[in-house]
Write a structure and sequence with these properties.
The complex is a heterotetramer. Chain B is α/β, with parallel strands linked by helices. In chain B, about 40% of the residues lie in helices and about 20% in strands. Chain B has nine helices and twelve strands. Chain B is globular and about 60 Å long. Chain D is globular and about 65 Å long. The two termini of chain D are about 45 Å apart. Classes of the chains: A mainly alpha, B alpha/beta, C mainly alpha, D alpha/beta. The interface between A and C is large, with 48 and 49 residues. The complex binds adenosine-5'-triphosphate (ATP) (2 copies) and magnesium ion (2 copies).
Chain lengths: ~300, ~300, ~300, ~500
Amino acid sequence: MTSGVEAFLEGVVRTATPLALAALGETVTERSGVINIGLEGSIIAGALGAVVGAAHGGVWAGFAFGAMCGCAVAAIFAVFAVTLRADQIISGTAVTLLALGGTGTLYRVLYGSAGAALNTPTLGPMPVPLLSRIPLIGPALFAQPSITYVLYALVPAVSWWMYRTHSGLGLRAIGENPAAAIAAGVRTKRVQFMAVLFGGFLGGVSGATLVLAQAGTFVEGMSAGRGFIAIAIVVLGRWNPLGAVLAALVFGAASALQFFFQATGSSLPYQLFLVFPYALTLVALAATRGRTSAPAALGRQNLDQG
Amino acid sequence: GAPVENRKPVTNQFKVALVTTGPISDQGWNAGAYKGLLMIRDSLGARISNVQTQTPAEIDENFRQYGAQSYNLVFGHGFEYQDPAIRVAPSFPMTAFATTSGTRTAPNVAGVTFAFSDGAYLAGIVAGAASHSGVIGTIGGTQVPPVVAAFKAFEAGARSVNPNVKLLTAYVGNWEDASAAKEQAMAQIARGADVIFQDADAAGLGVFQAARQAKTVRVIGSNSDQNEVAPEVTLGSVVIDLPRAMMMIARDVRNNTFKGHVYQLGDADGVVLWVANPKLAGEVSPATVARLDAAKKVIDAGTLKVPE
Amino acid sequence: MTETLAFVMDMLVHATPLIVAGLAVAIAFRAGIWNIGADGQLIAGATAAAWIGVSTSTEIGWLALPLALIAGAIAGGAWAAIAAWLRSRFGVLEVISTIMLNFIAIYGVSYLVRGPLQEPTHVYPQTSSIVTGAHMPTLVAGTRLHWGFVIALVLAVTAWWVMRYSAAGFRIRASGANPFAARSAGLINVSRVTSVAFIVSGAIAGIAGAIEVSGVTFALYENISPGYGYTAIAVALLAGLNPLGVIGTGILFGALETAAGTMQRNIGVPATTASVIEAVVILAVIAVAQLRVHRATSVA
Amino acid sequence: MPPIASVCRGLLSRHQQVSDDVSDVALQLASITKRFGRVAALSSAAFLARRGTVHALLGENGAGKTTLMRIAFGMLRPDSGSISVNGVGQSFASPADAIDAGIGMVHQHFTLVPAMTVTENIALGGRGIFRPTRTRDAISALAEKTGLAIDPDARIEDLSAGAQQRVEILKALARDTRILILDEPTAVLTPLEARELLRKTRELISDGRTAILITHKIRDALEFADDITVLRRGTTVWTGSASNATEAGLVSAMLGGESALDDSDAHSGAIVSNGAVVMSLRNVSVRDEIDVERLSSVTLSIHAGEIVGIAAVEGNGQRELLRVLAGRVGATVGEVTIPPVVGFIPEDRQRDALIRDFTVRDNVALLGAGARNGVMPWSDIRADARELLHDYDVRASGDTVRAGTLSGGNQQKLVVGREIEGSHTALVAENPSRGLDVQAAAAIRVRIRAARTAGMAVVIYSPDLDEVLALADRVVVLCAGKASEAPMEYEAIGRAMLGLSGR
Ligand SMILES: Nc1ncnc2c1ncn2[C@@H]1O[C@H](COP(=O)(O)OP(=O)(O)OP(=O)(O)O)[C@@H](O)[C@H]1O
Ligand SMILES: Nc1ncnc2c1ncn2[C@@H]1O[C@H](COP(=O)(O)OP(=O)(O)OP(=O)(O)O)[C@@H](O)[C@H]1O
Ligand SMILES: [Mg+2]
Ligand SMILES: [Mg+2]
């Protein structure tokens, strides 16, 4: 049996994992100047896709199908926000509504209108030999479901791509000044489309993680606002991959503290605990003041340069 | 001649509507009510309609629309519906409004309260006896009156077996975040809880998952019979037979015996039940079973005051 | 009352908070402030209005209504002022602080309706009903349509006029469109202008909440806003941030919500499917609008 | 010079013959038409650049030069007409296609990413792995080779307009560009830098590359270009060899036969004003955000009725001095006395002076917006705007068009006009003739002198010392943040600018 602190730290990483995955993808999307409010939609689609996929081919098929579903939702968003250059916020809002309603509808079609308590196979913790023995942080970081290790690998990979390849450079330039990127020969729409798809892919993986590494079931609306939290985490993480993961951990820690405090049997109003992650995020933002560098052209679809 | 059968208002068709605040696929509170609505359709031949309201503002709108369409009975499934029902009902005297968890009444407004506490008290007895650690947990969706009452009764039941039992309570903050509910359960397990009573609808499914992972922890389900969700860790479920309750009211309306009063339905009416999981019957000692039977008798006789 | 008339009335009732919150968003966005927090500001306004509504004596009569609206505006403005202060003092981006403040407002109400503001029997998580003096009068007898809709229209026209014809409105637009030029060429105190615009935006969102309580719910519940503040963003953007346009797009979204209810009630379309239909309509609207723009321009 | 029309015909037919030998033609644009709404920016414009030449493209502000070249670079699609590169017909969907075809362009309005470094900006658009160190070294080498000094690690937003211009040029050169389009590359460079750049451009074409140079400096065109094309109101009115052209002839082609406004005999430098002190600095120092001292203990008085020229090598504090005088930046220490309203023409018009998404009228309304109360007097503003468009010859189809749609020079005229007309006591101008055609530049000089004569105190800076000398009554030289008075003499000022003391 692990100690209380270790259990708490494990909870931190567990809670942070789906948020970090989604935020990592959204970081890439936002760096291309596109803010995808429809991320919530990709997450919920990923969750339903995971249930369906896992029912047919096991856990990893669940992840694969969940990621595909997340991608598909993002593709709808991209057609409107990137191809047609419709307003990103409206498109994202509509896509979220579409995906929340769509997954609900499909779920009822597949499993009956009163729902069914689905049981999917789940990933148990997979301790890494040696590393998981490190006192305190070992179990938290290295006795997690394997999807967490995928996240660990993704962070340096995405960072490397973003900062050490020309396509990554192009991506960042579009987010800062699309006119400059266009003038330099970057194929803006193509890059943005791919960036949105990548964000949707990880959003789908995030939703699949909720099902396949955590809840073990699908529930309508189970994304429960994580897409929006992930967007906030991207800001807190200052639009870079490592920052996103660290910010997700801050948020995860605040949530785990919330769980911890409620479990102490305290008589304080529970809303005080529920509000904790949000209040802490505000404090963290104020404390880490300084140059916050949002991609300058984030959310602005007007690429006309006079 | 032109077909006229659809033109004529079907004045004599019995029409029943259900308004819920959450999705009817929540496998709990709202799903039960929807099953009740389907049962009313199937056994009373009623025409049914169902709406999910997002916000208090939409409640009046739906009540008025149903009233205007001469629905015979409208269920408002939750305490939120009682004020709007009182407000709207005078304009539609031919429509009966029934609000679950409501206590305010008017000539055509009835409240329906479930003595969910009866079942929860019994569940508390089982939990108190089953817990080795002396720590038991309760996890709710949000802190709404029926959940608060259920947890109090559960605690009282557990204390009747083990006066020193320690109760942990957590609220998820919503009814659908199964992942967060699982984390709440794991946090309680880390604090020693080994029996957890969940009343969080769909989110509560995460609690079963936590117990599964922990293996030695037991869960008690609620609202519907959840014994099959995770048979290897579920001691039993506190079931509200919402279809049965709704049928009773619908029959009253159809037979013109509906009165604007509060329907108080519990164990004795067969509406609130403790359903033990037969697969884990071995974990409940004969002494506990005897206690349960005794408590049930006292409850049905109305002499046990389960704390509300 | 005919079905159509009933539909129109419900549509306008739905549209009212969306128009008012949409104005709040439009003004903020015009000032270059990404106020995602209209929802929290609306909730703050609703809370303050409900507090006035349950705590004033009935003797003050109809004065309770203006008091409630003013309280709503102050509370909404104050809620926005937190984000404005975090922005100017600590450089915290308002996109994120306002989202956080939305959650905090939601849990704040959740606490208040179970704590200090709970109805006297202490059973239900809601306040008791507000005094009748705080009720918004009905606009069309026999329907739910209340004077709040008229207030929304007046606010929209006022906002339009202010943005177009007043020096203050011009400063807001200039600061939002190019803060550097506004500062250098217009000698505008950009940070003050945007802070004030932010707070005014919050106050308007607060009024939306106050109108909702005094005209529709008559008590404070924890889920008083189903995300009005988020829908308001779409309402404002679809209107091109033009306050007069917000009336139209607010009514459009009100119609979608009402239609979603009608579909569920009368045709048995499940709530989830109704959302899908709503989303498809929104996407179709922006696609058509966008294709028209594409045809009109030829920028590569 | 023969009549334009016949020359034009002759040259075009000459090119027709030449273009039979396709290998000789680098870029050809034939009967290009482009409309923006009701405005016809180009109507049947023709352009042909021979391989291995420098080709100058001339025309007044708003003639369509930028538009034509943006079409060649794939940024705009023509309504009709054809593009061919090396004799092969092309249809560019985006600049990426043009770049693939070997075309590079240095834009009139910078297209750089402000938040990125010089290195990153130059690497933009490349493929594969990005190695910052390697790119940095390559940039240093290129900077060395071309004489365009730049710090590869500097962030663009911290650079002056001149430095940004050098980055733009390096960016275009860093690629293996076969056809290089330069849209007013020298507008913010010092004459020395400009000559250096043009010399390098000539070197560059020696291996068969082609350069197209948009400029308002006709002498540069005559000296450095092989061929010249003149656009007027969207149509090609003259094209031919530079050796066949004269300055007067080109100007007359640009202006459609009218003769240019000549202000060269305007009296300058002789009057030393004895008007009242309007602006004064006493021991003023300015430190920037990173606490570097930019101005150190400057004491200076500007009187009514004089034009004070500021001469400085870029980065010696002239930016800060101008902004302190204009009241746009506060002094860190020292005493600043300036009138409440000082007209200010900043170098970066698109960032600091204009709101591109606003109409011309709204941009006029920007003047004094900070202090205005109550209702906007829109009808007065409309009248002012229209008067300004007329008086300053701003070519716009009305006062309700978006300012961003004006040509660069016309944006400049709008800003200059607004600031001159809006201030009555003091004016600070930073490179006011940036991007103006000869005619417009002369007109602006006339306006500034008139303002001085009317009693205004004027401070003017330009990277081009000739321009400063043409206007100023006296000159203040800034070197390393310190100010000193210098005699009105080219050589002496030049030495003072470099901090070389002694006469
Ligand atoms: N950008 C603006 N902001 C605010 N008010 C404006 C703006 N533009 C115009 N107005 C107001 O609208 C009125 C009519 O403007 P409109 O654009 O029709 O004028 P116009 O077409 O340029 O001139 P005319 O009336 O001579 O045709 C103006 O007198 C002014 O009061
Ligand atoms: N995006 C646009 N929308 C509308 N009009 C435009 C746009 N771009 C250019 N124009 C118009 O086309 C004409 C030609 O502009 P262009 O920028 O090509 O001139 P130019 O010769 O480069 O002038 P300058 O020397 O001032 O830079 C101008 O009248 C300008 O207002
Ligand atoms: Mg130009
Ligand atoms: Mg007009």
